[in-house]
Specification:
Elements (H helix, E strand, L loop, with lengths): L1 E3 L32 E7 L10 E7 L4 H10 L13 E7 L5 E4 L5 H7 L9 E7 L1 E3 L2 H6 L2 H18 L6 H15 L5 H4 L2 H9 L1
Parallel strand pairs: 2-6
Antiparallel strand pairs: 1-7, 2-3, 4-5, 4-6
Length: 205
């Protein structure tokens, strides 16, 4: 059982899609039935701003969205041993407007082009890999999938910095900043923090 989220991580919906909470080890073959070859640039949520990290996925028009997602997860770009593949979704966002679309896993690349991309110039669209579905008892599930847990954290952090950081009080911002420093440098001793490179990185964060 999963709970579905809207485009903003911090805004939740109450629906639950009918998906199994268990993920088979091999869900989708990364092959299609042919068609025009296309290179999709799929952006990730990382410590940097969204769009600074990405993977180019070579596919054809018959590829399904679920195959694109799975090909990214098994590549190791998000981390090792991603088990909760059903948590992920692709969001297609138009960069010059507020138009965005969550892409159904069963849609093909060709169908996405016909339904959405054809309405605007191709360069104005961006594919974002995001956590779309949250499993019931997600804290327990995420303990077994640290890569997905970390990606979910980065997504929440990115959404907060883009949409909510300017609206909180100075006191709340200070507390959140201290928690982030504590997380980022949890394994560093005092001598390591005295290094200029580490101090500059801390100041930037």
């Amino acid at each position: 059982m999963y709970e579905v989220m809207s485009g903003d991580t911090l805004a939740w919906k109450g629906a639950s899609p009918r998906q199994s909470s268990t993920d088979p080890s091999h869900e989708t073959e990364f092959t299609g039935d042919g068609g025009p070859v296309k290179i999709l640039k799929v952006c990730f949520c990382t410590n940097n701003n969204l769009g600074k990290n990405f993977k180019l996925v070579k596919c054809d028009s018959s590829w399904k969205i679920e195959a694109i997602i799975r090909s990214i997860l098994v590549s190791g770009r998000l981390g090792p041993n991603v088990e909760l593949s059903k948590c992920y979704g692709l969001m297609l966002k138009h960069l010059k407007s507020e138009e965005l679309h969550w892409l159904h896993p069963a849609l093909t690349v060709g169908e996405v082009e016909q339904r959405y991309e054809s309405h605007h110039v191709e360069a104005e669209w961006r594919y974002d890999l995001r956590i779309r579905y949250i499993p019931v008892n997600f804290l327990e599930k995420f303990k077994k999938d640290r890569s997905t847990f970390l990606y979910f954290y980065q997504q929440v952090r990115s959404d907060y910095m883009q949409s909510h950081a300017s609206k909180v009080s100075d006191g709340m911002a200070l507390q959140l900043g201290c928690l982030e420093i504590r997380r980022f440098y949890k394994d560093m001793n005092a001598k390591g923090l005295e290094k200029k490179s580490n101090f500059e990185l801390l100041e930037m964060e």
